[in-house]
Amino acid sequence: MTWTPADLPDLTGTTAVVTGANSGIGLHAARELAAHGADVVLACRKADAGRATASAIGGRFEQLDLASLDSVAAFAEHWEGPLDLLVNNAGLMTPPAWRATADGHELQFGTNHLGHFALTGRLLPHLLAAPAPRVVTVSSLAHVYGRDSVVDGNPEASYEPMVAYGNSKLANLLFAFELQRRADRAGRTLVSNAAHPGVAATGLATDPDGVGARRFFKAVPTPVVELGLRVLLQSAEAGAAPTLYAAAVAGPATYSGPQHFRRGPRRFRGWRGPAGPAALHPRARDEQLAERLWERSEELTGVAFDLGG
């Protein structure tokens, strides 16, 4: 039986935060959660787009720039009450040249991983106050490009856009699975898992902070790029299904994604299809690498996780 977002349970009485929810995967995930009764907070960097989207789907907007640890701290400081679901979704992809966050970290590593690491850690008391909290971290097929050097944080001297992106997405997985191991050791009921959207037509390709900064995408009109993506790739709505599956169905320390075409070429495996268990590079299950990355992330963010136990 194929799972779809229509199978989400009644979420009345639950509270969810979705980062980067003003467009793409985050928007569709937030919309479905709200449609099923959840009180959804759209945590976005772009205030105007975030407010408009929140109003359209019946959610709430809160300012959050994951490339700034001060912004992350401010968001968490103003949070009140239990938090049932945190969806670490926001991110950017392959800026052609090395760029730094407000705190001096490489932009992809700092935004995609460190920002979400710090956000989860600062919101942890509120998550643990919920009866059955979940943290879903959105990774990518590109995690296979990640290397053991992920702990170095993508230094400028060796910057390669796709490797740096792959490292940030590998970091997402190492973090998600290590969080589950630590929660288990502490006897907590928290579920931490991960998902990827396959290859979906989202704003990543036109984002001026990422792929959109490349010469080709700057030369081609944005409507033409967006039309081509819609023709070639699955929709952002379809790409959000694995995130929702992870938020409602998938177990702890699992990885969800689109199921490949049973009769299609192997090179398209995981690109699209209904949500379910996804293939994972063995490096993502490396517990020693995860431990090293966790310790390094604590050093870089100044955020420690208190799971008790």
Automatic annotation (TrEMBL):
Gene3D superfamilies (UniProt xref): NAD(P)-binding Rossmann-like Domain
GO molecular function, one term: oxidoreductase activity
Keywords (A to Z) from UniProt: Oxidoreductase
Keyword Nucleotide-binding: no
Keyword Lyase recorded: no
Top-level taxon of the source organism: Bacteria
NCBIfam families in UniProt: PRK06197.1 (NF004846)
The protein's name: SDR family NAD(P)-dependent oxidoreductase
Organism: Nocardioides caeni
